[in-house]
Design brief:
The chain has nine helices and seven strands. By secondary structure, it is an alpha/beta fold.
């Protein structure tokens, strides 16, 4: 520490140490809880924000309350129903310890359709909430970037000054809240936790999880290039031999309801 020449270097040094400790702790927690997969699912198409721009709200809290009430469109319900196939058959409802929503109505409605128990032999899985999955009022710098850049992959945001740092800080907020939640559900059966959230912010969270799960540089780079569509998912899996698997779960270009999992990177 004495050799560090500036407060910025000290901050970077402390951040690196913090992330190393968190990485070890997350791996240990996953082993203890039997978790081998984390899934990040973007909500299906939602209705607009009452045709009222964000600038009409006096503060982020008021805007967040209004934004959280947006329901799915009829088209969004169809998207979620189609995605249910890859979720139920490709992931497995009973494999989930818990299902996690952001608290926004559109994310919860997507969760309800994709993970609804419809037969007597299907599992019933508890639903938890991670508030930070809805970023309004939590990550103001990320919100400003989103207002200007809109949807797109992480590479689009990383090209902006401080874009990578802002998204990483937001992802760490989600990761911290996730670890707190994990203490409450560690004893539950299942090896997967599926989280339903929002646009590029899910990609940012997935990136911080992937770093702490020791995904390779090639896989992290592949993750930066994913433009996650509505009712699509990012799957981070630890294989039985310890290898890591990154998949984009979607039905693009296939018949409605087809099950598919596309690897983003193969060694």
């Amino acid at each position: 520490v004495d050799a560090l020449k500036s407060s910025e270097e000290l901050l970077l040094y402390c951040t690196v140490l913090h992330n190393i400790v968190k990485m070890v702790n997350l791996e240990e927690k996953f082993k203890e809880c039997g978790i081998t997969r984390v899934l990040f699912i973007r909500h299906a198409q939602a209705c607009p924000l009452n045709n009222k721009p964000k600038t009409d709200f006096s503060n982020p809290h008021d805007w967040k309350l209004n934004d959280q009430t947006r329901p799915l469109t009829d088209g969004g319900k169809v998207q979620a129903e189609n995605a249910r196939r890859w979720f139920i058959e490709g992931v497995g409802l009973s494999n989930n310890k818990v299902l996690v929503g952001s608290g926004a109505r559109r994310a919860v409605e997507t969760l309800q359709i994709m993970a609804e128990t419809r037969t007597a032999n299907e599992a019933q899985v508890e639903v938890q909430m991670i508030h930070s999955l809805h970023p309004a009022g939590i990550a103001l710098e990320c919100e400003k970037l989103f207002d200007r850049l809109n949807y797109g992959p992480l590479t689009k945001y990383y090209a902006e000054p401080n874009g990578e740092r802002a998204l990483a800080e937001y992802g760490q907020i989600v990761l911290d809240e996730f670890c707190d939640m994990l203490q409450r559900c560690a004893h539950k059966p299942g090896n997967t936790i599926s989280m339903f959230g929002h646009a590029v912010f899910l990609n940012a969270a997935a990136m911080e999880f992937a770093k702490c799960m020791n995904f390779s540089e090639a896989e992290l780079k592949a993750l930066t290039e994913v433009d996650l569509g509505e009712a699509e998912g990012l799957s981070l899996t630890i294989m039985p031999d310890g290898a890591k698997k990154l998949q984009h779960m979607h039905c693009r270009g296939l018949a409605a309801g087809s099950v598919t999992a596309h690897p983003l990177f193969s060694a």
